[in-house]
Each structure stands twice: as C-alpha cells, then as structure tokens.
Amino acid sequence: MKRTLLENFLLHGHESNLPGISIDNVIFGFHDNQLKVLLLQSQDKDVWMLPGGFVGKREHIDEAAARILKVRTGLDDIFLQQFYAFGQPQRIKNKILMKALQSMNKKYDKEHWALQRFVTIGYYALVEFAKVNPHPDEISLTCAWQDLDKLPELLLDHHEIIQKALEEMRLKLNYQPIGYNLLPEEFTMKNLQSIYETILGRKLDRGNFNRKMLSYGIMDRKEKHYSGGAHKAPYLYSFNKKKYFKALESGLGRDL
Amino acid sequence: MKRTLLENFLLHGHESNLPGISIDNVIFGFHDNQLKVLLLQSQDKDVWMLPGGFVGKREHIDEAAARILKVRTGLDDIFLQQFYAFGQPQRIKNKILMKALQSMNKKYDKEHWALQRFVTIGYYALVEFAKVNPHPDEISLTCAWQDLDKLPELLLDHHEIIQKALEEMRLKLNYQPIGYNLLPEEFTMKNLQSIYETILGRKLDRGNFNRKMLSYGIMDRKEKHYSGGAHKAPYLYSFNKKKYFKALESGLGRDL
DNA sequence: ATTTATTGAGTCAATATGACACAATAGTAA
DNA sequence: TTACTATTGTGTCATATTGACTCAATAAAT
Fold first, then answer.
1. In chain A, which residues have their Cβ closer than 8 Å to the Cβ of B61?
2. CA A83, CA A172: separation in Å to the nearest integer?
3. Which residues of A touch B171 (CB under 8 A)?
4. Segments in chain B forming alpha helices (H)
C-alpha cells in the first residue's frame, strides 16, 4: 500500500508538480521551555530531514507549504512564513529517492525528474506543541520533535535551513505573533521569556523582561496560578489577541 | 543580431537553464536625495519591468542574480540580498515573450518552456548610482532609473516585488551596510538621513538622527565641506569600513 | 517546621529619546 | 557691500527606557 503510493509518486509526480522546486518546512514547537523542530527520519535510519514536498502545477507555493504542513501535523490555519530559497547547484535529492527507486526495481535514469537539482523554498511554521500529532509518511520511519540545540545529523543543507529560519525569525520577532502561535492559551511569563531567549540567542534579565512585556499591554493576567512545578507558583497569562495584533502592526517595542 | 540572440535564447534556453525558475533584481540607487529603482521598458513601450533572468543548470541562484546584475549595471562585487520567492500560479511571462515568439514567425505552442509558470526569486541590490551605466538588452528598449514614489505601470507582480524588497530591507537596516553601498565615498549626513527616511517610511528629526549616527562611531568626518548647494555647507563624511562592519555584526543600535 | 528555588515587585543610577532652540554660515538677492 | 534665507552644527532639557540589582512572598520538598 505505502509502496504503491510512493511508486505512483515517483513515476507520475512530474505530471502534477512543478519541476525543480521543492518546499521545506521548519516546524517549530515549544515544550519544556525549549524550542523544538519537527523532523522526519528516513528509512535508512541514519539521516533526519525536514518535512518537505513539491508544488502542484496550479498551486501557490504558500498553499503547497500549508498542505505539506497539514500532512505532518494534522493542523489547519497555522502561522507559516516563507523565509528563504536555497539554490546551491548541489541540491539533489539523490540519496533518499535513489534508494526508493532502486528498491522498486524499476528502470530509471539520471534524467528522472526526482533526481534533478531542486531549488527549495523554506517556510517556518509555529505550532502549538500539544495540538500536534506527528504523522510519518511512506518514505519515513519516524516523525518526531527534536531539540534545537541537540539536532541529529541532517540531510543535505537542512541544518543550514534551520539556522536561517531562526535568524529570519529573530528579525521578525517584533512584527509577528510568535509567542502567540507557539504557546497554549495560558502560559507563564517564563515560558514566553524562554522563547525570546532561544530566538535571540542570549539570556534576558527576568525582571526587565517582565516589565517590558507587561508595558506593551497585550497580555491579560489570569487569577489562576500555574501549579505543578516546585517553588512559588507563577501567574498565568494569555494574549489579548486584539491588542496584540494591533501592537504588532507597528512593531513591539517600536514607537509610533 | 539582437534578433538572433533572442531567437537563440527562446529556442534553446531550456537546454541550459532551470525550468520554471527565474530571478528578478530590484536594483536600488540613490540620487538627488531619493531612492531609485533601475527598470527596463519592454519593446511595447507601455510596460516596465524588473531586470530579470534565468538560472543556469549548474549555477547557484546567487550567482545567477549577480550575473544578471552585471549585465544591467556593468558592476561586479555588488551587495545583493535575496529577500523573497514569488510563487502565485498566475506568474506566467506570457505577454512579453509571446510577442517575441510571434514576431519571429516561429511555430510554438503552449508547452514552450518560456511560457510556463515561473516561480521568481527576488534579490535586492544596492549600487552606487554614479557608477552605473544602464544597459538595455535585446528585448528591452530602455533601461532607466525610476523614482520609488513615482513608479510607472509594471509587469505582472513587479510592483509587489519592489514593495516587498523595501519591507525586507527595512528589517535588515541595522544589520546590513545599506548606507555604505548606496552612497559614494563621501556624503553628507542629510544624504544618509534621506535613505533612512525612505526605507523607514517616515521623517526623522535631523538633530537626533545626527547624534545617533555619530554615536555609533562608524563615520569619519572630513575636513572638506560639501559645496554646490545654497545655504550653509554641510560636512562630508565617509564610513570607517572596519568599525562599520564590526558594528553591523551585532546590529546598529543594538546593545552588546 | 524548615529548607529551597523561584516569583512578583520595586529601586536607582545611567543612558537614550523626542522635541526644541539658537547661533553660524554659504549662496542669493538687493 | 549688505541684508536675506534656508540649512547646518550644536546644545538643552524634560521624560522614558534600560540594566543591574534587592527583597519579601510562597509552593513544594524534606
């Protein structure tokens, strides 16, 4: 069954997809006060890769990215941002797909559409960790969250792609609802601070971070406190969506 | 002669270029205290477009962008930054190329490689206005600088592409040598301020801008004054390249 | 009951910012 | 030569922001 899907795709994919263009999604989630990336493990078991795919002949590249995201996470309406196109001439998806082709005992040659050079367009997605049910596909064994700072060996330039995603996210931190999309409805100030620290790549002072975030007036403090951890129980907050998005228009921390 | 080049390109371009991918350069220059964009006018005379081109089968997309830039400006080693990929399914280069094909009286069909949908990758370039000698090509009549705020009618989504270039440039303003690449060796503080005002899209206070720029310690003040304009002659400055690039690493205006 | 790590709140000096003011001056007009 | 004008270099000052730091409160663990 799975084999049939893959066969069909390799033999007929060129009829419905654009040649030479692929999409790779860097899917970020937040758990245990750490940023995670959703990765696939190939059947070889030794290499991990970003969940990617191709673009339909009449499909917007943004739609393609959303479709691919949905396959992996089951989620609709997810924040998705294109950030860079990667176009080294060595970008050829040979390893994975060649094995697949060989295992099919099909005839194929170097001209096979899936063995050509691909320019890949990177998107980063911000998802709420708890809502995701990772979903492997026909050429992958595993689909799992990986710590950003403990990434396994990755296919091709996928390591570079993740780094670039982080860099671009850093630039847009004050203009996009990054905390909003990564966190659940209710969260602690420390949760939010951890996200900022990871994206900015440096530690922030707790008190000052607190003061600054609250000064934007974009969060509502709940009566409830977080319970479960040791030590003093922190307040829970949620974003005031209306004020948050209003503030993002001109950029957090930027003056009118 | 020109006809032959174009013919050759349309008939054989698919052999040496990647299918379905193009490059469009937004080339910025600075003159008369205004930002300008270098545009091409098609033979139809009514539509302008960004200077673009295709990617060689073994060429890095960055190299392709640099090659295309060189053809237009004659310049090497120019600051060039990829900023976005545009992939609506309606992106078909029909108008211009169809006319060219028709005028050749060659047989062609809807499957012609140049009439397929293209995903275009946008780069912005920052060039020193005075060093550029605009250079039209075989399918263009004119190649000229246009004011950013008085753009003529543009092909396809090229207007959107220019806007996006500006937006992305705004985000990177503190991390890229934007003034350095747009200005000549010596310039006035007002020149620099005009660039910032255009990119940020708002007026800045003269005195405060002055104070802030000088506080970075990245500019050397010359003994000479600018002469030519009426009124008090301003100082000339030049960037201290070493300090400038050092400061950009952590971002202008950002703390350590 | 005591310990412990963490939280909420606050202090305070140093720095940055925004909004102005004002004298100096290069070319222009008289 | 002189007055005029628009622009420049520099400075002021009240206010806002920042970074570094305290300290009492407190929830869970011992």
1. 85, 87, 119
2. 10
3. 171-172, 175
4. 2-16, 61-73, 94-103, 158-172, 178-182, 189-200, 206-215, 241-250
Length of chain A equals 256
Regarding pTM above 0.85, the answer is yes
Q: Which helix (H) or strand (E) holds A21?
A: strand A17-31
The answer, yes or no, to whether residue A154 has pLDDT greater than 80, is: yes
What's the rounded Cα separation, in Å, for the pair A51 and A26?
A: 8
Q: Measured between CA atoms, how close is A56 to chain B, in angstroms?
A: 9
Q: What is the mean pLDDT of residues A13-38?
A: 94
What's the CA A206/C1' D17 distance, rounded, in angstroms? 16
Measure the CA–CA gap between A7 and A104, rounded to whole angstroms: 7
pLDDT of B138 reads: 63
Closest nucleotide C1' to the C-alpha of B229: C27
A121-125, A130-134, A167-171, B11-15: the lowest-pLDDT one = B11-15
Instruction: For tokens 């007002």, name the residue.
Output: B190
The residues near B173 (Cβ < 8 Å, ≥ 6 apart) are B196, B199, B200, B252
**Nearest beta carbon to residue B20 from set A18, A87, A88:** A18
Q: Within 10 A of B255 (CB to CB), how many other CB atoms are there?
A: 5
- Work out the pLDDT band at B1, boundaries 50, 70, 90: very low
Distance of CA A133 to the CA centre of its chain: 14
Whole-angstrom distance, CA of residue B205 vs CA of residue B4: 55
> What is the β-pairing status of strands A17-31 and A34-42?
antiparallel
Cα radius of gyration (chain A): 20
pLDDT at B136 over 90: no
- CB count within 10 Å of CB A180 equals 19
pLDDT in tens, B19-56: 999 999 999 999 999 999 999 987 777 889 999 999 99
Q: Determine the pLDDT at residue A37.
A: 97
Which residue approaches C3 most closely, CA to C1'? A231
Considering only residues 161-220 of chain B, list those whose CB is below 7 Å from strand D: 188-190, 206-208, 210-211
Residue corresponding to tokens 């977080």? A226
Facing B60 at nearest CB: one of A60, A61, A88: A88
pLDDT tens track for A200-251? 999 999 999 999 999 999 999 998 787 777 889 999 999 999 999 999 998 9
One-character DSSP codes across A80-145: EEEEEEE--TT-B-HHHHHHHHHHTT----TT-GGGSB-EEEEEEEE--GGG------TTEEEEEE
